[in-house]
Amino acid sequence: MSEFAPGTRVRVRLDWPELRGPVHIRTPHYVRGREGTVLRPLGRFANPEDLAFARPAAVLPLYHVRFEQRALWPEVVAADEVVVEIFGPWLEAA
Amino acid sequence: MNLSGLENERLLAALRGVLAAKNLVSAAEIAERIAITDQASPAQGAAMVARAWTDAGFRARLLACGTRAAEEFGIMMRGAPPLGVLENVPGLHHLVVCTLCSCYPRAVLGYPPFWYKSVAYRARAVRDPRGVLAEWGTTLPEGTRIRVVDSTADYRWMVLPLRPAGTEGWDEAALAALVREGDMVGVTLPRLP
Fold first, then answer.
1. Considering only alpha carbons, which residue of chain B is nearest residue A68?
2. CB-based contact (8 Å) between A27 and chain B?
3. B57 and B101 share a domain?
4. CA torsion A13→A16→A20→A23, rounded to 10°?
5. How far is the C-alpha of A73 from the C-alpha of B126, rounded, in Å?
């Protein structure tokens, strides 16, 4: 799996595992399919999507990813931003 | 399902019994965790903020690793998620939310306030942070960008607010008394009484 350096433009996978069965997802719906910028890696943590079901969990890189507010919500005009913790497998280079 | 108090007690007793029988968590460990959680309060976070305002070395350590800085402060962080500290600077203000549940830096701030867990706060903080701050009566200086931090995974976040003007020469205890829990979530700013 690729690792992302600070400053890398990334896209959150547009995926809805909720539609395929019981899941525990820590990637909020409002960033799926959206582009942001990696602020910094936060370390590696066991995948909560497996931990929640007591399955063996891979240890995955976690990133702080910054999104422009205007890229997320149609009505926003302010130059504010949202920073979200996202696990590596949810990200692809944009 | 009956979720009356009595039923909750029975469920809790059964769960504790199973955890102990399987050697997963002992009664003593549960008691220790409850004691730590009950002891935590915004006063701990406020004391760390005041120290950071008066001690540049501590400030640097706090920003580099909140967990280690909290331990240095005597706060028990074992078993707690890593603590990240978000530094407000002129032109950049942080606001913390957990849109997915109610993740909160309990080790240093105690139990999350009711509004932090509300659906309204969680939905609006990421979409209309300026509206939320306005309802709190919080006015940011012109040209300040808001960085909303959605606490979605393994970290817990607290805000290191800007030291208010007019507090030059104050000692740590007086400064700590200014800092409220909302200041460390980012909905409010420390202000003089």
1. B147
2. yes
3. yes
4. 90
5. 9
Token code pair at residue B178: 């200014």
Rounded CA-CA distance A76/A46 in Å is 35
Looking at every residue in chain B, the average pLDDT score rounds to: 94
Domain count, chain B: 2
B60 and B28 inside one domain: no
- Domain boundaries, position B122: 41-184
Same domain, B26 and B107: no
Task: Report the complex ipTM.
Answer: 0.96
Among the listed residues B41, B65, B98, B151, the single catalytic one is: B98
Instruction: Tell if the pTM clears 0.90, that is, is over it.
Output: yes
Identity of the residue in A66, A73, A85 whose CB atom sits nearest the CB atom of B152: A85
B4 in active site: no
Check if B65 is active-site.
no
The domains located in chain A, with CATH, are 9-93 (2.30.30.50)
Of A73, A76, A87, which has the smallest distance from its Cβ to B153's Cβ?
A87
Mean pLDDT (whole number) for B15-44:
90
The greatest distance separating any two alpha carbons of chain A, rounded to the nearest whole angstrom, comes to 44
* Active site (annotated) includes residue B118: no
- Write out chain B residues lying below 8 Å of A39, CB-based: none
**Would you call B102 a catalytic residue per the annotation?**
yes
